[in-house]
Design a protein that fits this description.
heterotrimer; A mainly alpha; B alpha+beta; C alpha/beta; A: mainly alpha; 2 domains; 11 helices; 76% helix; 0% strand; B: alpha+beta; six-stranded mixed β-sheet; five-stranded antiparallel β-sheet; 13 helices; 13 strands
């Protein structure tokens, strides 16, 4: 029960409380809202929707530093848990860890999506997306609450005395799990898959096939994460057995992890967004460009590592 | 970032600063308190980490009836046969109760031919010859002895009620203040006499391994070979210190959170009630075409300025309090030492994570407290203004 | 320019006006004549979008402002309507310049642009020499000119004035009428709600709407 954990639990409680407020407002709005109505109820709902929107914007704004802080406190916890040498150990210390990480990421995407949807909605006098917006918010807030509960449960169930596996064990290719199979796949296979996905994405970008672009953005996210752990990570660490998604965040590797993950998440987010909302042309272009720029940068950086290694050592790992 | 809006908010705060001043001051105080607590524990943690770094890789202890007892030094030879062990030696150390002053001294026996772990002792041995019949004492010990009229020597009383006079050869200091203050260093054989140990008796055996990554395996081997002994690794020591800290920190934090919840509610209440001049100003702004969104932005800027200002100011004051004034009052709360109070100076430790954590605690929480009141203000009806 | 159709406004159970229909052309200067409580101030509120009607609609510059969501409505008011209030509604602790620029603050414009705009209207209404003076130190007439300047800073198409000369002395009333004459020459749609008879016989007024009936 480190101070970091306590601070998080405290802030989470506050967030949960305010999320409930948003939830109730969303419920009311999705039930009673008619944009063309002129009743006092309608005006009241309009005002309440401002509160919900503002709170949601705030929740998202706070989620990002909190997510970073979450990673930090995992790292700090790693020094307390026997056997854990980085955050991976902590994540796997409980059965909830991996799910918590996934749901946190998912929520970041969902809330970002909601904010974009909201800004598009407010640009139109008819508020076309408002009912949908609030129905979605009901779902997203529920997921946020699940995340908070899960996080608290995880923190409480960490056993300080039992030994945890460190990333070397978790991601080792000798394990019989699917994860191990994926990560243990040969270098060329992973590289090809990765490049193929990127190429399709690039073609979709150039030809403006938005739906394919969105689909492959999602695919790229998955492929990139797998190859990052399975292949590219090992070149960052220059160790063929070091498959860890967290260690690359630390100072020994120049904090490159932060850049990579940011590019990856931002790029794929804007890509997927293209199919979810019907934007006006200029905005669509802009997002498409941002997405491709981020994804390309990610690809370049991630390919640079094995390339530089090869140049330096003449062989691959 | 709307600069015009920012300057409006700054001007607004300037014009009506009194109302927000009390909130600001309390927030600053809370920040200072929390920051000071964290700075103190960060420093202490840093100190303890240095001590832990100097602990041997493995400590072998023996217990009897649940109580610590001595070991046979000849076991060292046996242990050296285990592959991976670089060195092993028996240590003699312990506590001596000085009845008159009601304090415990910590006594450490050294042998110039054996390897030492603690840097303070290493440098001590480099600088001087520790002759039999003399000892080096820490500053705190010197003070206590002097208070009891022992200026140049001290008479230890062995378990056989024999008097052993040991002369004080000098006073030492070390990089870490926490432990050395209450320490007395003398020849190992001398200490053996004082404690009344037999010839092969030692307090514990310490082991260093050649390759740190093999440590768990070797520790395991030792546990298997000597199931009746306590095998304590460096990691265990580190963990237990860390746990102790987090426990103390945790309690403090819990109390703090209660205080903060109260503050939260106060902020909420206070900001919900607007003076009529404020109400009028908001109504005028809305009449001029400011949207609810704009007013909320202004209130957000306001909250950010106040909380960020309180955060920065609180940190500065805490810095001064902890590292310049040496944290009177609060330091004792955290040290909780028995016996001699180490007069150790808190060393400057700069931890980005601690500052980040403080930020997360102070700024977003304050802003959250202002959100609903700000919204209520922003949606007020404008009709009366036209009259 | 401003089209009012079957406008009804109720306060509690009392009808302030019912099924009112009227239209105002661009560039017209209209006087709305009526005693206090006749509903003329409320009509201005409705046109400005400061309040919503009980039923009926108002179309201003082809925008159905009675149906607009709040943020659109406020933005519309900010960009297209300048209001001169009965009690001026200036912020006393701010300077003349700061008061005049208030409507533009949320726009996040460049400093130079803002200052240019302020200077223009301050010169136009002869208050530039007091630009950095706090409003509370100004005389009644000067405050009046600040209020008028503020209403013009966004260069709106419509100016609404609610009882602008109530409680003013003769000299200030005449000065306002002069300013009104100058405003008329800028082709803005101006609506003045007043019961001051000095407005009823002016030669540059296009129309008088009688609310007492």
């Amino acid at each position: 029960m480190t101070p970091e954990v306590i601070v998080q639990l405290f802030v989470n409680t506050l967030i949960a409380l305010f999320s409930l407020i948003v939830f109730f407002i969303s419920y009311r709005v999705s039930k009673y809202f008619h944009s063309s109505a002129t009743t006092p109820l309608q005006y009241r709902l309009e005002k309440e929707s401002y509160l919900a929107t503002t709170l949601t914007k705030y929740l998202f704004a706070i989620k990002i530093p909190l997510f970073l802080f979450f990673i930090f406190s995992l790292e700090k916890l790693a020094t307390l848990l026997p056997g854990a040498m980085c955050a991976t150990g902590v994540v796997n210390a409980t059965v909830y860890g991996p799910y918590l990480l996934l749901i946190k990421l998912l929520n970041l995407y969902l809330f970002a999506y909601w904010l974009v949807l909201n800004s598009v909605d407010l640009k139109d006098v008819n508020l076309p997306y408002t009912p949908m917006k609030f129905k979605l918010l009901l779902v997203f807030i529920s997921l946020l609450l699940v995340e908070i509960v899960l996080e608290s449960v995880m923190y409480f169930s960490v056993d300080m005395k039992s030994i945890v596996d460190c990333c070397g064990v978790v991601f080792s290719s000798s394990d019989g799990s699917y994860m191990a199979w994926l990560i243990g796949a040969p270098f060329w296979m992973q590289l090809t898959l990765f490049l193929l996905t990127f190429v399709v994405l690039f073609i979709a970008y150039v030809r403006e096939y938005y739906h394919i672009y969105a689909l492959f953005s999602l695919l790229f996210l998955v492929v990139a994460l797998i190859t990052l752990i399975g292949v590219f990570g090992t070149y960052i660490y220059e160790l063929p057995t070091h498959h860890c998604p967290f260690c690359m965040l630390s100072i020994e590797y120049g904090h490159i992890g932060y850049l990579l993950y940011t590019l990856l998440f931002v790029g794929t987010f804007f890509g997927i967004l293209l199919t979810l909302i019907d934007f006006e042309v200029k905005r669509k272009q802009r997002y498409r460009n941002i997405s491709m720029l981020a994804i390309s940068s990610y690809t370049l950086i991630v390919l640079a590592y094995p390339l530089l290694y090869f140049i330096k050592h003449g062989v691959l790992l | 970032m709307n600069l015009q809006l920012l300057s409006y908010v700054l001007r607004y705060l300037e014009r009506g600063y009194v109302k927000n001043l009390s909130l600001f001051i309390v927030l600053t105080l809370l920040t200072t308190l929390l920051a000071a607590a964290f700075f103190i524990t960060d420093s202490m943690r840093f100190e303890l980490q240095k001590i832990v770094d100097e602990t041997p890789d493995i400590i072998v202890q023996k217990t009897r009836g649940g109580m610590r007892t001595t070991l046979d030094e000849s076991l060292v030879n046996e242990m050296l046969e285990i592959p991976g062990i670089a060195s092993a030696k028996g240590r003699i150390w312990g506590y001596y109760y000085f009845q008159k002053a009601d304090v415990y001294f910590s006594l450490v026996g050294v042998d110039i031919y054996e390897q030492e772990h603690r840097n303070a002792i290493i440098s001590l041995l480099q600088k001087s010859e520790l002759e039999v019949g003399t000892m080096y004492v820490g500053e705190g010990v010197k003070r206590v002895l002097a208070e009891n009229y022992y200026e140049d020597y001290f008479n230890f009383i062995t378990p056989n009620l024999e008097k052993k006079r040991v002369y004080i050869a000098g006073v030492f200091t070390s990089a870490t203040n926490l432990e050395s203050n209450e320490m007395i260093v003398m020849q190992k054989e001398q200490l053996r006499e004082i404690f009344g140990f037999q010839e092969n008796e030692v307090t514990d055996i310490v082991i260093d391994v050649a390759n740190p990554s093999e440590l768990p395996t070797i520790a395991l081997k030792l546990t298997q070979n000597y199931p009746n002994f306590n095998i304590v690794t460096k990691e265990d020591v580190s963990l237990s210190y860390a746990a102790l800290f987090n426990y103390k920190n945790g309690i403090f934090l819990a109390l703090f959170i209660i205080a903060f919840f109260t503050y939260f509610i106060i902020v909420y209440e206070k900001l919900s009630g607007l003076s009529s001049a404020d109400k009028r100003e908001i109504a005028i702004l809305k009449a001029l075409g400011w949207r609810v969104e704009d007013i909320l932005h202004a209130k957000l800027y306001e909250a950010l300025i106040i909380s960020f200002g309180a955060y920065i100011l609180g940190i500065f004051i805490a810095f001064g309090y902890v590292y310049i004034a040496d944290a009177p009052l609060l330091k004792e709360v955290f040290l909780g030492h028995s016996g001699l109070k180490p007069e150790f100076e808190l060393l400057l430790v700069f931890d980005m994570q601690t500052l980040f954590m403080l930020f997360i605690f102070i700024v977003p929480v304050y802003v959250l407290a202002t959100l609903i009141p700000a919204w209520r203000i922003a949606i007020t009806e404008v009709e009366e203004v036209m009259r | 320019m401003i089209a009012i159709k079957s406008l009804t406004k109720k306060f509690g159970n009392k009808f302030l006006f019912e099924n009112y229909t009227e239209s105002f052309q661009e560039g017209e200067l209209i006087i709305i004549k009526g005693k206090s409580g006749s509903g003329k101030s409320t009509l201005l509120s409705l046109i400005a979008g400061l309040t919503k009607p009980t039923s009926g609609e108002i179309v201003v510059d082809s925008q159905q402002i009675s149906k607009l969501p709040e943020h659109f409505c406020s933005a519309f008011r900010r960009d297209n309507i300048g209001i001169i209030f009965q009690k001026y509604n200036l912020i006393e602790s701010l300077s003349v310049r700061e008061n005049i620029l208030l409507p533009l603050v949320p726009l996040g414009l460049q400093e130079s642009l803002m200052q240019e705009q302020a200077k223009k209207v301050m010169q136009q209404f002869e208050i530039e020499h007091k630009a950095d003076e706090l409003v509370k130190k100004l005389s009644g007439g000067e405050q009046q000119r600040v209020a008028i300047a503020r209403a013009h800073v966004a260069d709106p198409k419509i100016i609404l004035a609610d009882e602008p000369t109530a409680n003013l002395d003769e000299k200030l009333v005449l000065s306002f009428i002069n300013i009104l004459r100058k405003m008329k020459s800028q082709n803005k749609t101006i609506i003045v709600a007043t019961h001051d008879s000095r407005f009823f016989n002016l030669d540059f007024v296009d129309r008088i709407v009688d609310f007492d009936s």
